[in-house]
Amino acid sequence: MFIFLLINLFCIINVSGQLCSADYRMNLTGLDVFSDGSIIKNGIRFPPNEIFSLNVSGDFETFGCPCELRNCFRKCCPLGQVMVNRSCVEMYDVLQKELRLHYYDNHIASVDLKNSDQFAVLTGVPCDWDVYKEDDGPWYVQLVSH
């Protein structure tokens, strides 16, 4: 009985705890849970150990930590939109031409943000600092390990 209680307590603590901060989580609420406990969103398979639930305004919502599984790419506006005068506007070219990323080691790559298995794209998250891109120059990416 004691072992069962201990296991049950551990599961509740693990599920209720935050595995990543609000800036680095993806909402998985309402998605299908597979028999192994995983959930798939935007081509990313979240194993059970990267899924947690939180009480948000009285409702339990399910979240995953994509940055634990892939390199994260933060984009203030949703895919297909760009920031213009502090608001998101549709930009067809962003999805059609892919995003050309220039790495600091002079490597250049085009990334299909909708189907990337290299990056987890966090979208729709408002940037809470003044970030902007001057002119239409290249986008640089620096991979940082954590």
UniProtKB/TrEMBL annotation:
Residues 63-134 form the Methuselah N-terminal domain. It is found in: Endomembrane system. Its main location: membrane. The keyword Transmembrane helix applies. It is a multi-pass membrane protein. Keywords: G-protein coupled receptor, Membrane, Receptor, Signal, Transducer, Transmembrane, Transmembrane helix. Transmembrane segments: none annotated. GO terms for cellular component: endomembrane system; plasma membrane. Pfam families: Methuselah_N. Residues 1-17 form the signal peptide. The keyword Transmembrane applies. GO terms for molecular function: G protein-coupled peptide receptor activity. SUPFAM superfamilies: Methuselah ectodomain. It comes from the Eukaryota. Belongs to the G-protein coupled receptor 2 family. Mth subfamily. This is Methuselah N-terminal domain-containing protein. It comes from Pieris macdunnoughi.
